[in-house]
Amino acid sequence: xxxxxxxxxxxxxxxxxxxxxxxxxxxxxxxxxxxxxxxxxxxxxxxxxxxxxxxxxxxxxxxxxxxxxxxxxxxxxxxxxxxxxxxxxxxxxxxxxxxxxxxxxxxxxxxxxxxxxxxxxxxxxxxxxxxxxxxxxxxxxxxxxxxxxxxxxxxxxxxxxxxxxxxxxxxxxxxxxxxxxxxxxxxxxxxxxxxx
Length: 196
Fold this sequence. Notes:
The protein is mainly beta and 196 residues long. It has strands at 9-13, 16-18, 25-33, 38-42, 46-49, 54-57, 60-64, 71-75, 85-90, 95-99, 101-104, 106-112, 117-121, 124-126, 130-135, 143-147, 150-152, 156-161, 167-170, 173-175, 179-183, 189-191, 194-195. It has a 15-stranded parallel sheet that branches. The protein has a five-stranded parallel sheet with strand order 10-13-16-19-22, with no helix packed on it.
């Protein structure tokens, strides 16, 4: 079934598609994709979040960004600061590829919880308090890959809590963060990253 096009102003439970013709989208209140529902975001779409609002994913998330036409998650203000909006919270167990996207000015650009299966690739996390966060209890698992992405001007680029061997950080650029990687375990792998 074709997903319906979402309205320009978003709040509450959402299930549908964000299209370039309706961009920019404005998030007026917390938005949630329920288990069994999906959010598809087309190339070039910008989603602007009001102060302290967040996107929570329990269902599917598909990002159709391209090198020439990235997707942007940003603050809905002309003078943004780090932590203006909450972030993208991934509770879903479905595989998600965060490709050709930008997340900026959030408290946590993207935070992944137990059994998340997320690949971040070709993306930019900038001016967040934390760019990407993995938050697990000690007995929980998740598969997180951060590849060919840039983490810039965050308080902490990648924050790992109880990361396991299923966490890989490869071929990324970390620049101008207060701290590049914050971690409480050594179980994850890091390979071929540039820190400046």
